[in-house]
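Entry 14. Structure prediction run on the chain below.
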Amino acid sequence: MTNMREGSVLCLDPKGWHRMRYAEWGDPHNPRVLVCAHGLTRNGRDFDYLARAMSDAYRVVCPDVVGRGRSDWLKDPADYTYAVYNNDMATLIASLHAETLDWVGTSMGGIIGMILASLPGSPIRKLVMNDVGSVIPKASLDRIGQYVGREPSFDTFDELMAAMRSVSPFGELTDEQWRHLTVNVAKQDERGKWTFRYDPGIAQNFHATVTGDIDLRAFWNAVHGPALVIRGEQSDLLLDSTLREMSQRAHTQAYVVPNCGHAPMLMDDAQVGVIRRFLLG
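Output returned:
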């Protein structure tokens, strides 16, 4: 990780300004840019393995979406919306001076990428959607809703890691990889207890919008460039039927990760190799 750098951009939301932080890999002057955006309660350091593997070919930028990781929390939880996330990413892209870029998004990060790639004049050239699709089933959102926004605390880091492993069907990972995924979402509070590093306020809009399946086909059908859709074989968020429907779109590739639910963590050579061939092929 010797070539990782950290940066930030100042972004505007309805109640004021906030700072979005990011990790960056590769040559900072490389005009070929790859943005990697994480899932609902995760952070940009989830992509360390992928970013390191791609940093020979790209300037790789992995933001912590506002309210997560080391980015600021919003003053009003009602502002945790895709409109704010999209504007933040536009600010980030402008700061990178990238005429075009490629995008890897896991779950929420895939939705952000899909929306941005569907808009007229989008700079996104190739899009990788990791275990998220054009329809989000209510059942999967209900499952996620059982833990998002709760504020559990643990006496030790290992207890927090065990709790995360128990609810995260990320597939076949080593103990070291689990530790990496945990250490960047964990923090100690003033009592010395271990908690998760995200604003519980992100749950407010999440719970308010889960009234049925979420249909995002209008965005998906408007994506203008090539896309790779990755699915965890046992995923309840990207169903096999949805993947088959999405694959009907021109210039769409599909890849299924065996023995994995929501979501593949892109931390092994096979998964990275598929992404690399798609983006650089």
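The chain is about 35% helix and 25% strand.
Filed with the rest of this week's runs.
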